[in-house]
């Protein structure tokens, strides 16, 4: 009986450690709202504030969009100015 309880306790601690390593499950709100609550809420908010500061710094960096030639051809086919252009026809040949 005690072995089963100890094994269950170890498993629960391992799961909590893994969840803490992964990070918060929900995306933090970008707005700075006030959180009220007990000790567990203040501990959770201090951990999420650390995650929010690093994510907000990442949000300041411009995000690169990668496209391939097929995407470019599709865009050029849809645009009126480039739908019959020489560049589009040369893209078809590649």
Automatic annotation (TrEMBL):
Q: Where is this region: Disordered?
A: 17-58
Task: Say if the entry is tagged with keyword Nucleus.
Answer: yes
- Superkingdom of the source species: Eukaryota
The compartments listed are: Nucleus
GO CC annotations?
A: transcription factor TFIID complex
Record Pfam families: TAF4 (PF05236)
Which parts of the sequence belong to the Transcription initiation factor TFIID component TAF4 C-terminal domain?
1-90
Gene Ontology MF terms? DNA binding; RNA polymerase II general transcription initiation factor activity
Instruction: Give me the stretches of Polar residues compositional bias.
Output: 40-58
Q: Which example biological process does GO assign this protein?
A: transcription initiation at RNA polymerase II promoter
Q: Which InterPro entries match?
A: TAF4, TAF4_C
Asked if the Swiss-Prot or TrEMBL record annotates the protein with the keyword Transit peptide, the reply is no
Q: Which family does it belong to?
A: Belongs to the TAF4 family.
This chain belongs to the protein called (diamondback moth) hypothetical protein
